[in-house]
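Re: that chain you flagged

S.,

Sorry for the slow reply, it's been a week of failed gels. I finally had a moment to sit down with the sequence you sent. For the record, here it is as I used it:
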Amino acid sequence: MSSECQIHSTSSDGRADLLARDRALLIETVREAGLLALAMRRTQLRTWTKGVSSPVSEADIAVNDLIASKLRALPDYGWLSEESADDLLRLGKRRVWIVDPIDGTRGYLAGHDEWCVSVALVENVSPLLAAVFAPATDEFFLAERGQGTTCNGLPVRATHGDDLDFSRIAGPKPLLEKLDLRPNDAALCPRISSLALRLCRVANGRIDAAFAGGQSHDWDLAAADLIVHEANGKMTSLGGEPILYNRAEVTHGVLVAAGHSRHARILAHVRGRSLA
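Prediction finished late last night. Pasting the structure tokens below so you have them in one place:
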């Protein structure tokens, strides 16, 4: 083998080993974080409000601290979490962990089951690894770029076709009405309070399409984005633009996720419609 081939082989092997390490660490960390959140839900939790109306609990902080203790031990990786002060040094990092310790805190505090822990490893603005764990419903979604998506270890795929069955479309009711995607007599899919879990339900075919209203953030989206993509789905803006992560601005506009054919039909349907 030539020296050039040896160098390439070693580099490829080294990257594969690094990715395998990160994948194992991600799985272990997200599972442990989900079980901690589940255990704390059975206790009396202190809660408060951040911003205008976003609820936070001591469980959000405890889960964030647990994840940080595991993942921030990797010194060359950046960090962006809903429950941590934003350290803009992340912008200079090639790989960044993007974390939502408990996505769907409002439902979590109300005793509902549809909340999750969501963590992605982003490389150069695109997700590389992703895990979303909903411990109350026992759903563990895992995806790796180019390797497909699994739920509880079994491969999953977004639904085929381009029909619009409104009982299988999830999203904010006012948004769907503005987009003329909900006839007055059509029953929508019941609300899924966790945005990450709503999007993941597209990946495993439980629903056909999901919308995110404006003002979602990197931590709501990054893991679910890869999970949908690797399940033969697409997740973009209504203009069809991909979502870019780990930038100075981490807030995003209206987004849609669906299987390829249905995604294309939805974009064609809403083209030119105003959200004002």
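What I noticed first: The two ends are 63 Å apart (CA to CA).

Talk soon,
D.
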